[in-house]
Amino acid sequence: MEKLLQRTCKEVDSAELFKAKNKTIPVNFEVNRLKSIDISESEGKALRVINKGRIGFSSSTGNEDFDLMVEKAVATSEFGSTASFDFPGEMKRENKEKKNIDIYDERVADKSIEEMVQIGEGMIERVKDFNQKLRCDVTILKDDSEIEYLNSRGGNFSYHKTTMAYSLMAQQIKDQDMLMIYSSLESGKDNLDAEELTSEIIEHLKWGEKIVPVESGKMPVIFTPKAALVLILSIISGLNGKMVLKKISPLTSQKNKKLWSDLLTFYSDGTIDFALGSAPFDDEGVEMKKVPLVEKGEIKNFYYDLQTAGMAGVESTGNGLRAGIQSEPVPGISNLIIEEGKVSFKEMIKDISEGIIIDQVLGLGQGNIISGAFSNNVQLGYKIEKGKIVGRVKDVMIAGNAIEELKNIAALGNKAKWVEGKYKFPHIYLKSLSVSAKK
Amino acid sequence: MREIFEKALKNKRNSADYIEIRAEKKETTTIHFQGEKLEKINCSQQAGGNVRALVKGGWGFVSFNQFDDLEEKVREAIEVASLIGKEESKLAVSSPVVEIINRELDKDFRQISLREKKDLMENYNNIIMKSNPLIQSSNVVYTDRFSTIYFANSEGSYIEQEKPFLSARFTAIAREGDNVQIANESFGSTKGFGAMEKISPKAQRAASRAVNLLRAQPVEGGEYTVILDQTLGGVFIHEAFGHLSEADFLYEDERMSGLMKLGKKFGSPKLNVVDDGSIPDLLGSAKYDDEGVRTKKNYLIKDGILTGRLHSRETAVKMGEEPTGNARALNYRFKPIVRMTNTYVGNGDTPFKDLLSGIKKGIYARDCYGGMTTFEMFTFSAGEGFMIRDGKIAEPVKDVVLSGNLFTTLLNIEGVGNDLKIIESGGGCGKAGQNPLPVSFGSPHLRIKKVVVGGR
Questions:
Q1: Contact yes or no for A363 and B453 at CB 8 A
Q2: Which of A61, A159, A296, A315 is the most buried (most CB within 10 A)?
Q3: Total-model pTM
Q4: Which residues of chain A neighbour B28 with C-beta distances below 8 Å?
């Protein structure tokens, strides 16, 4: 790699080479039986150059000619953005509290396909014990990836990372009603508990046995950790340094102002052991760290990559992430943690005389996200009457504006849960939200 | 490539019931303007491949970037397939084909300089940015991609297909205080660069729609009679109905296939739905699908009755039907699964103004932000909405999201327009992590009663 970089530097001011290699093995069960096993290997290189002060970029997979990559990167630099940063030099984690971040587990790397098949079979058996008529789709997946980074200013790092994931979807059809419940667990470590997943699904199946009507109107609503992204997605997008710099974000001039409920505190943190978004450095060599975004309802920071930070005249927060080998780094969230509140899910339910629990929605991220507006079909939700779950709701939509709704948090749950391996969310209880139902 | 494939398949035919190898080489150029600035311009080259093997009914799949040892990949695919296989392998018959399909482009985008592409997009970006002082920012994203797909299977097929793809997406962001509104327009094509040079009206429209949305009030939630324009009608039929016609959802699931029983009434006699991958040069078109099966015109609903569905070779044989040429893979990382191609609602005979008449309070929903479906429930967001009052289009409304149960909604289509339009958008369809797969869709204007619209 070093030689390739030296060759590039004959033509440009400075250069950076990012290399990713990975092997993913998903074992898939469909309709209660083992359906397919895939082995997916990938390898790619991305070259970013600064040439006459401008950024150029090209990427390649396979064994193509490296000179062609250089040629393309140089060609794009002619029109590229003016670089407002230089590649970081020597890379060393400065953070004393968190020098090493554990993201690799040998037991994941060594896990046999046979063992993965057994885990999946066990999960299906457990759910079918509850109800023989259910259709279960399960995926047991392991991933092993290797990142190498090198730049012409002497900066370099590399790491290995593992991921283990179990996901389960249970489906039940009666006449024209389809009940579909899914959940998943992800970790960098081989510590997932299949029982936790199956119990959750079975509990929800019990809640959902009966369909109950809902009247349209404003009512209290609890979002489960799985559904909390409905409220958080547009905030994540609004705190993105690039959206702020371009003044697209409605949060642009709101730093250090109190916008939301005192209960709301969250941060981005790429240093948590075995969380999926963790790594020693971001994808352009800046140390990952904990970045407070919102404290007690007040915006503390936006998150940045090198280029955006340079343009905004601030430091990168270590949030320069690539969406794939073909993408340049942009501001992104490593892991997002919302601090827990004090109220249990049970107490929230008890508190509500008439309201709903939202667990799965359709159309997440659809619509005008940045404005905060959301409007979703409640794909899986439960009705609460007089402090008790009485059944499942159907043909119901929720709508609101996340930036507004988060002002009126009644409570946050006292037991946050990992979602997609990179978000840790508690239950979010809103005093009132618009609900539309079919007559 | 043919020799490499044949060498890898040689001597392996006895250890699996079926083997196929696909490879893909592609070059991609992306140009992205955001606001006043050129945000990103990059070129990538990709090469990769996969092997899929079927042993006793179980599939093994291996994908890779390195072709050095293709024989080893074939062996691996057979090995994992053998872990699954417990029954008899079944695949619908498809006669072996040897064919090389090249595409001649009028103004081949591979010959156009990076500068010319950049200048054209800059021009579109300027149209958006300068159209109105309320325009805060923009996104103009241009992509061109030229792929060659190589396919061979153990039955003797060898097919090479060239697939050009061009797209442009225009986003206008208008802002007044805290009110931020976004409008999108997009365009896709499989033709030459000339198609890209005629789309300034789309840039105009994105800008004016975003500005108009600043004035629109949020729609009031409730149940309405709704008229969908050709884009939204097309998205609706693709999302809500099309996905349920994909036989991989059905063939192993008795209850689902019961719901989708051929011969069942799905709508009024005016309702016709077609998926056709054989229309020349549309986004979802190809002569052969990714299993080497010839594409064709498939009626899904004819005169209101469910008459067909979409198949791969495996789903077809398991349901006792013919393969339809709908096994498609996003790229070499993925195995082919059942997908739509070009899906549309056939023309009816009602002029647009007659669809409006008699609606006391309804919604005219146009364009689309996106849509999603899980089995029978669907939801999609209109890009633009207007109230209909006393049979006339009235004030604009925003945040219009429509939702419902597919079966009742299809039966609730009470008017089919006579103005079918096929939409070639730059977006695509997502399923099982394979996103965005180029497809096209379309419809005449549709009038649907009792649609739930979310709102504050």
A1: no
A2: A61
A3: 0.88
A4: 326
